[in-house]
Amino acid sequence: MRTIILVGYARAQILDITGPAQVFQSANEALGRDEYRVVLACVDGHKVETTSGLHLAATPLPYVVPQGADTVLVSGGHGVGRVVKDMGALDWFRRAAKGAKRIGSVCTGTFVLAAAGLLDGRRVATHWDAVADLGRRYPKLQVDGEALYVNDGPVWTSAGVTAGIDMCLALVEADLGREIAMTVARRLVVYARRPGNQTQFSALLEGQAKAGGSFAATVDWMAEHLADSISVRDVADRAGMSERSFHRHFVSEMGDTPARYLERLRLDAARTLLASPELPLKSVAAETGFGSAGRLIQAFERRFGLSPTAYRRLHAG
Questions:
Q1: Is the Cβ–Cβ distance between 160 and 76 less than 8 Å?
Q2: Is 177 in a helix, a strand, or coil?
Q3: Is the domain defined by 203-315 classed in CATH 1.10.10.60?
Q4: d(CA 315, CA 198)
Q5: Rounded Cα gap, residues 278 and 317, in angstroms
Q6: Which of the residues 15, 58, 107, 115 is marked catalytic?
Q7: Which residues contact 289 (CB under 8 A, 6 or more apart)?
Q8: Can 107 be counted among the known catalytic residues?
Q9: What angle do CA 119, 125, 131 make, to 5 degrees?
Q10: Rounded (10°) angle between helices 243-254 and 203-210
């Protein structure tokens, strides 16, 4: 069996632990055999006191031997500031990096691996709210502020909370193939393995966070009708405003023009569809409201600096 060691500590985020654990257990269920053995280790003793108030039984970290393990993952959480100062824990992670096949982190667990000196020169991910702090504290890291997860050699790091599930689905796919990973995703009723380069703070989520009043429903409507080739005038009509008045109020509230925001929604949707290698580019353009492959290519290159085809080669399953 492949041994997966999940490391928690006082005030760890519970989903950073239970999300990955369930992915590997669901892979066992999908296979009908025990491919993975999950071990929960705790920096602080025999139980992980999570931020949710629930306590998880665990094995004290010093008694867990990382040599020969398949994967070691450290969780994020409010208690990470104390763990990065725990010399015994950091030494354990250094041994784990030498003895395990893969090492990684979920959410702000990245700080622990960085403090142990295991991420210097590597591209990494963390929770969007901690990106600036991580880069400031550890300038030798290449912090990707958008990625859901990053794989750099034997090191895997993910963004916040549920992104740990995305990363572990990718680990299962690397081990057992895409079909098993897709089966696990369906069992968990989550996205069928979102690509790591999918932004963790999407245009839709950002818009929903900023939008207030009548714009909340308008933002949702825009996202639901991308394939209808809607225009800014259509959106203004939906909001019950003149196009000029809508433009002014939208910029004031959202910090972006309606046209640019609509294009961002379409490009986010296009990136998700491009993860399916069998879907023709013209179909991606049609389903995201660009109308033609040419218009999609122009917008994609303007925003991301590469063509949809190049993006697909890098990120498609």
A1: yes
A2: coil
A3: yes
A4: 9
A5: 10
A6: 107
A7: 226, 227, 228, 229, 230, 266
A8: yes
A9: 100
A10: 90
- Separation of alpha carbons 287 and 129, rounded Å: 32
Query: Could you state, in order of their start, the residue ranges of all structural domains in the chain?
Result: 2-188, 203-315
- Cβ atoms within 10 Å, residue 225: 15
The CA distance from 243 to 277, in Å, is: 38
With both helix axes pointing from N to C terminus, report the angle between 258-274 and 308-315 in degrees, rounded to the nearest 10: 40
CATH architecture of the domain 2-188 equals 3-Layer(aba) Sandwich (3.40)
Give the orientation angle of helix 243-254 with respect to helix 214-224, to 10 degrees. Answer: 100
Alpha helices in the chain (DSSP H): 14-31, 80-83, 87-99, 110-115, 131-137, 163-176, 178-188, 203-210, 214-224, 232-239, 243-254, 258-274, 281-287, 293-304, 308-315
DSSP annotation string for 61-92: GGG---TT-SEEEE--BTTHHHHTT-HHHHHH
Q: How many Å apart are CA 251 and CA 40, to the nearest integer? A: 48
Q: Regarding beta strands 71-74 and 2-8, do their DSSP bridges make them parallel or antiparallel, or are they unpaired?
A: parallel
Tens-level pLDDT at each residue, the chain (317 residues) = 999 999 999 999 999 999 999 999 999 999 999 999 999 999 999 999 999 999 999 999 999 999 999 999 999 999 999 999 999 999 999 999 999 999 999 999 999 999 999 999 999 999 988 999 999 999 999 998 878 899 999 999 999 878 999 999 999 999 999 889 888 988 887 755 555 455 544 565 666 666 766 688 888 898 889 888 889 999 999 989 999 999 999 898 888 899 999 998 999 889 888 877 888 999 999 999 999 999 999 999 888 777 898 878 766 54
CB 96 within 8 A of CB 116: no
| Distance between CA atoms of residues 24 and 173, nearest Å | 11
* Distance of alpha carbon 256 from alpha carbon 52, whole angstroms: 36
